[in-house]
Amino acid sequence: MTLPSYVQGHWWSPDADAESTLVRDATTGAEVARVSTAGLDLAGALAYARTVGQRSLGALTFHRRAVLLKQFALALTERKDELYEISTRTGATKADSWVDIDGGIGVLFSYSGKGRREMPNAHVYVDGPVEPLSKDGSFLGRHIYTRLPGAAVQINAFNFPVWGALEKLAPAFLAGMPTLIKPATPTGYLTEACVRILVETGLVPDGALQLVSGPVPDLFDHLRLGDLVAFTGSAATAEKLRAHECVQTGGVRFSSETDSINASILGPDAEPGTPEFEAFVRQLVTELTSKAGQKCTAIRRSLVPSASVDALIDAVRTRLSERVVVGDPRADGVTMGPLASTAQRDEVLRQVARLQAAGGEIVIGSTEAPSVTHADGSVGPAPDGAFVAPILLRFADAAAPAVHEVEAFGPVASILPYETTAEAADLVARGGGSLVTSIATHDPEVAVELIGRISAFNGRVLLLDRDDARSSTGHGSPLPNLVHGGPGRAGGGEELGGIRAVLHHMQRTAVQGSPDMLTALTGVWHPGAAAQPGGVHPFRKSLTDLRLGDQVVSDTREVTLADIETFAHFTGDTFYAHMDEEAASANPFFPGRVAHGYLLVSWAAGLFVDPAPGPVLANYGLENLRFVTPVSPGDEIRVELTAKQITPRETDEYGEVRWDAVIRNQRDELVAQYDVLTLVEKELSKA
Questions:
Q1: Is position 19 annotated as part of the catalytic site?
Q2: Taking a C-beta distance cutoff of 8 angstroms, is the pair 630, 590 a contact?
Q3: How far apart are CA 107 and CA 243, in angstroms?
Q4: I need a labelling partner for 209 at 20 to 30 A (CA). Which of 8, 104, 233, 382 fits?
Q5: Tell me: the pLDDT tens digits for 599-652?
Q6: Residue 504 has what DSSP assignment?
Q7: CA separation for the pair 145, 339 (Å, rounded)
Q8: Is 564 exposed, middle or buried (0-12, 13-18, 19+ CB in 10 A)?
């Protein structure tokens, strides 16, 4: 079978006699598929994304896209058993497949939730506060994000054929940018199965998702300003792609997440027998064997106090013998499968030989072909499988250049001794930039010192100790809500990190204009823009009827000393500024006794609220509250409440309304300002 591509709205396959690449089962060597793109119209696929894909996604708000992400996740969950079955051919155990498949589905769920909670139900994302540009408030500045007008080309590595595709797709889709996925050849058939499930739902907007199964040698020749490339793979390939003229001078955005020589530090306090030592051992064995060590976040350098090196090696050897069974992922009891291909196996062994030549001594494992557990339960050699047993090397010279430069992308790690935390930090830095470093310590001073020294060389740092060892997600697990990427050798790019990743697919623009123009552009009412006071109270309006600028201007209310004292005794807040005239007068901020800020906020609610049952269902919070001018006994206050932002929820019969609340005194001085958050029905309930 030649693996098809999904381009321009349909499945495409090359001619039967087209030259193709054979892909084999990582365990048995049996043929799985062939891949070829001979005759594929790549330029047409990109044009389809820029036109049809942009149009279909552009018609959807952030929230509608977020809802679709959840539906994609549910569809994949319903059929994930199909993906698990296919995944075994890549060499993945059930636990490996869980990380890849369920992990990828989890990213979709995460971005669906974040999109609806943290982004507006709109097409423009507002960044940061208003910047006043004139004394009278008639000229303002604001930063906004709008989606890029091109295609998001996503080039993925072989080790995570589902997660790697979905963790890039989710933020691009939420941003409104069409995706073209180019999976790695050895495991692309699993990506194809994932994309097929999504296409078969009928939910994917036209042009929003395409798949190219096979080589794309002239891809970069077809890219232009407005397109984006997100690459995961080797540092050497990333460097070559980044040098293309479309990136250098053509304006194509290029981000990369590449192989890195990640480190894990056993703190000087984490001696044998401590919980931190045990957690460190468990983590190292996990990272050696999960996905057969084929993880860009796996531990390659294990930095250990010199006095604990022998104990650590013994502990790792014991745990490997007790917990790890190498073999066919289909066999019961197997905990580590083969590498993705025999070519990858051979490459790993070549890199191990380089490490040995540089002074590395193999203290656990061997480069010889291991005996493995077969699908029928028998144990023996598997000459057609891509098996490598876990290998741990020991370097007497921790500063040997090769151990900080050479990566054996498989179940391989090296032990490096150190004497001081400063030396450990220096060894981390020698890796030239990493995706992640972990530190096993229960000493805050050690943690603080190391974080200060190594953070600049890492995209993520994990602190592991007895308090979080059981709940920790692990050294090698990127999370959707935290950034994934790293400086230097790690690629210099950044993925995930919540809404940050969405914004990577958008352009930030500074916009200057009047309050009315910025209100129309952003969907957020700005002070100075048109307001509609009077008439029907805004709390009597459903989302259907409510408009930005609908406003309540209250009557005034006088604040008396008796009010202040009553509030103080009723709440227990007898802070001296409210109760002691002499002490309050001595305070540089107060003219004497003043009203509680929360008394004023409470009174403001009483001044603007319409108390009868209606479309306003609940007040669920205040944000950005600031008290500006003190209120003394005898002062009067009034409040202006203006509909600032209206956000219907796609899956509920209500939405959110953000109100601009301003309290002023009788001299029209600003007393307090804040946002009131309410939940409001979309339609008026029928009595």
A1: no
A2: yes
A3: 31
A4: 233
A5: 999 999 999 998 888 899 999 999 999 999 999 999 999 999 999 999 998 888
A6: T
A7: 42
A8: buried
Q: Which residues contact 685 (CB under 8 A, 6 or more apart)?
A: 615
Q: What is the DSSP letter of 410?
A: S
CA-based nearest residue to 490, from 478, 479, 501: 478
The length of the chain is 687
To which residue do tokens 């321009």 refer? 8
Q: What's the distance, Cα to Cα, between the start and end of the chain in Å?
A: 63
Quick check: 389 and 336 in contact, CB under 8 A?
no
- What are the residues facing 672 on neighbouring strands? 627, 663
Catalytic residue, candidates 167, 192, 246, 257: 257
Cα separation of 566 and 570, whole Å? 6
Residue 463 DSSP SS3: strand
pLDDT in tens, 293-339: 999 999 999 999 999 999 999 999 999 999 999 999 999 999 999 99
Phi and psi of 111, rounded to 5°? -70, -30
d(CA 249, CA 308): 52
- Quick one: which of 303, 295, 286, 278 has its CA closest to 439? 303
The DSSP annotation for 143-212 comes to EEEEE-SS-EEEE--SS-TTHHHHHHHHHHHHHT--EEEE--GGGHHHHHHHHHHHHHTT-SPTTSEEE-
Could you tell me the two tokens for 44?
């047409």
Q: Is 661 helix (H, G, I), strand (E, B) or coil?
A: strand
Q: Parallel, antiparallel, or unpaired: how do β-strands 301-305 and 360-364 relate?
A: unpaired
What tokens appear for 215 in the block? Answer: 């080589």
Catalytic residue among 276, 296, 407, 640: 296
257 is a catalytic site residue: yes
Amino acid at 467: D
